[in-house]
Structures are given as C-alpha cells and as structure tokens.
Amino acid sequence: MTRREEGKADRRRRITAAARDLIRETGDTGLSMRAIAARAEVSLSTPYNLFGSKRAIVLAVLDDIDDFQARFARMQGVDAIERIFQAVSITIGYYAADPEFYKTLWTALLDSSGKDERTALLTPERKAFWMALVAEAVRAGALGAEVDVELMTRNLDLTFAATMLTWVFEATGAEALEPSVGYGYALALAGAATDAWRPRLLAKALEYQDQLAELQRMAAAA
User: Fold this and answer.
1) How far apart are CA 144 and CA 15, in angstroms?
2) Which residues pair with 143 in a beta bridge?
3) 170 vs 77: CA distance, rounded Å
4) Are 72 and 64 in contact (CB under 8 A)?
5) Is a pLDDT exceeding 70 seen at residue 207?
6) What is the pLDDT of residues 28-74, one digit of tens each?
7) Of 153, 124, 134, 135, whose CA–CA distance to 63 is shortest?
8) Helix then strand then coil, % of the chain, to nearest 5
9) What does the DSSP assignment read for 79-148?
10) pLDDT digits (tens, 9 = 90+) for 71-113
C-alpha cells in the first residue's frame, strides 16, 4: 500500500469510528456529515469523497470488517462449510452483544430513500468475503461445480437481510437470529451440495430447526 493509500485508509477508519461513536452517544443515525467530519477531524468534503453518502458510512459501521476479519482469522481446523456457519455465528455475536446499537443501524438502512441505497446491502468488502467462502466450498467439493458463486452469495445475503428485518420490527428475538439465519443457509446450501455433503447440511438444518421449534415452545408457554 502506498503512502497515499495508507492515508486514505486511515481517514476511512477515522470517519467510520467517528460515526460509530456518535451513533452510540445519541442512539440515532440521523447525523450530519458535518458532525461526522468534525469528530473524525477531517474536512467536510472528505466523507463525501471517500464514502459518497451517509448511508455508505452506516454500512461501513455495520460491517466493521477489520474486527470481523481478525476474529475470523483466529479460527483453526474448520472445513469450508463450517467456515460459513462460523462466520454467521461471529456476525450474530455482534448483534447479540449490542442489540440496540445494531437495530439503530438496520433501521437506518431500511429507512433509506434512494433506490441505489436500498438495493446495495452488500459493501464490496463484505461481498468479496462471502463470495470467497462460497467459492472455497465449491473448490472443496462441498458445493457443485455448477454453482454460481455470486448468485449463491446474493441468495444467502437475502436470507440474512430478511431475518434482520423481522428482528428490527420485533417479530423475532435476538436469541432466534443465529438459528434463523443458519436454518436458511443450511437449506440453501443443501440444495446446491454434492451428494457427499448434502446429508451433513440437511442434518445441520434440522439442528437449527429444533432450536427454532424450542424457542417457539418457550414463547407459547410464557
């Protein structure tokens, strides 16, 4: 990375950190670019130049790719399919640890007024990460060679987004997030799995199904 690229990356980190701190302090994503720039100690034009919009900054806060990658890198001895579900578990862990903060972020994404902003739920970094996981599963022979990696990644992300939507609108609790996402992922991947891997993915789907059924029984008894 050149000195210019390092400076640009540093400014992006400062802007993301500033937005994260302001959202935590105020409980609101309705922040002005001026406030974000002032907290990050950059010019007013810098957030626009580096992100393009306030919503893009919110997406960057939501992803927190640097911390996620550090946690994910610490996993050892996990096969290609399990890596996908471990990534889900790490992601949901952020939400469970600070639900109100992440609900605020998702509410901001859902309230977006621009068409381009509503459709771009995957940042380039996040898309590349998940596509790499799916591609790894194809190379390992867990998923069929005919699987379109980009379309499968998009399908998985739609499952994730739909689960977040029900959570934001209080239709499901935080405890149901991981089994809900995992159930959808397991079923989708099982449909694209090779014969050798399909039974394992179906078994994983049933594990998540049992967890969801138990949560439903507990809710009914409450």
Assistant:
1) 41
2) 193
3) 37
4) no
5) yes
6) 767 788 999 999 999 999 999 998 888 888 888 877 656 777 778 77
7) 124
8) 75, 0, 20
9) -HHHHHHHHHHHHHHHHHHSHHHHHHHHHHHHT---HHHHH--S-HHHHHHHHHHHHHHHHTTSB-TT--
10) 787 776 689 999 999 999 998 988 888 888 888 888 777 665 5
Nearest alpha carbon to residue 143 among 152, 156, 125:
152
CB-count burial class (<10 Å; 0-12, 13-18, 19+) for 74: exposed
Characterise 91 by phi-psi region: left (phi > 0), alpha (psi -120 to 50), beta (else): alpha
* Most distant pair of Cα atoms in the chain: their distance: 60
First to last CA, the chain: 56
Residue whose entry in the numeric block shows the structure tokens 């867990």: 142
Domain 64-221 has CATH 1.10.10: no
76's tokens: 């050892």
The sign one gets for the Cα dihedral 205, 210, 215, 217 is positive
Residues belonging to the chain: 222
- Domains of the chain: which residue ranges? 1-62, 64-221
- Tokens standing for residue 199: 């039974």
Class (C level, CATH) for 1-62: mainly alpha
Structure tokens at 64: 């927190």
Phi first, then psi, for residue 79 (nearest 5°) are -75, 175
